[in-house]
């Protein structure tokens, strides 16, 4: 954009020069100025001609400088407007922050603050009254900074610092942070911010209370579970004693089998759940004998073929008795198959090898050992040496060799 003053000055210079040229042309023919000017001897005429020429040049230069000055003024005004706009935007942004922000010097004096800070501490319409005050006087209403003050820490270390603080006068929790900022004049100011975390703290408190209540509930459930489990175990043991009480010759047999089975399972490193399943199955493995006549169980002589058929039905009857009871599903295969033999010559299904459930194979060894070492109406208890020899000979035919080896280790270490 051209300056009007610059145009006027330039045109004036051209006008004066044009008039001068026109005057010279009218008074002297053949461009007298061009021919005679160097020959003029009078100093005044020389001076006059120089003034005219320099006035013309000066007018053009002055017009150019005036125009550039106006451009500079326009740019300066635009820059000032941009600075004012940027300052207003910064102030708007600063005041719209949803938490307290202050600029503090190294003497803890408040240099600037946003509206949130003024409203928070009751200076809604008098925020200027906070300027120059010590930050700890306004925030904490004290004459010195608090312990672990982030401003003091930041001044000391020249790094950012933060802390969580409960302000009793406001009944609020705050996260206070302080960050040092170096200004252009090399002075350091500290950006002090306070974020209200009361809601977060309340939620944390509720969460802790809920967690404690949950753990207390788990403890109660654990106690109740242990109590129920104790009742359950007592009932199973009592039930096994009822089974064994059917004949004086089998008294204590189920608990004895359970003891041997658990010992073998632990020797082989089985899981605790498998050990518990095995123990329950051992205590109830002969429950099917409830339906067997006492005269057969107490018979001192050899059983007839019909009596053998009746006796061999007790694993299947035991499974049928326990099947309706929820929670005992895992022991049903063990009760049914505890008389199966490794070579397939057992009953009731003639299973062999890995077809027989592993825990049923283990139960078979424990049941056989307790039967051989117990008194029966048809024979006296076998000696330990005989039983050990029998286990070794029957490993691979009647019994699983791996289970027999584990049991022999237990017996030889006693």
Concise synopsis of the structure shown:
The protein is an alpha+beta fold. It has 16 helices and five strands.
Descriptive tags:
5-stranded antiparallel sheet; 414 residues; 16 helices; alpha+beta
Strand-and-helix sequence, N→C? Answer: HHHEEHHHEEEHHHHHHHHHH
**General form:** elongated
Measured on Cα atoms, how large is the radius of gyration?
55 Å
Q: How many strands appear in the DSSP assignment?
A: 5
Number of helices: 16
Given as residue ranges, the uncertain stretches (5+ residues, pLDDT < 50) are 29-42
Largest sheet: 5 strands, antiparallel
Strand content: 5-15%
User: Helicity, in percent?
Assistant: 55-70%
Structural class estimated from helices and strands: alpha+beta
What's the structural blueprint in terms of helices and strands?
Blueprint: H1 4-27, H2 32-36, H3 43-96, E1 100-104, E2 110-113, H4 115-120, H5 135-139, H6 150-157, E3 161-167, E4 172-182, E5 188-196, H7 198-244, H8 253-267, H9 272-284, H10 294-297, H11 305-311, H12 314-322, H13 332-337, H14 358-372, H15 384-394, H16 401-413
Antiparallel strand pairs: 1-2, 1-5, 3-4, 4-5
Helix pairs in contact: 1-3, 8-9, 8-14, 8-16, 9-14, 15-16
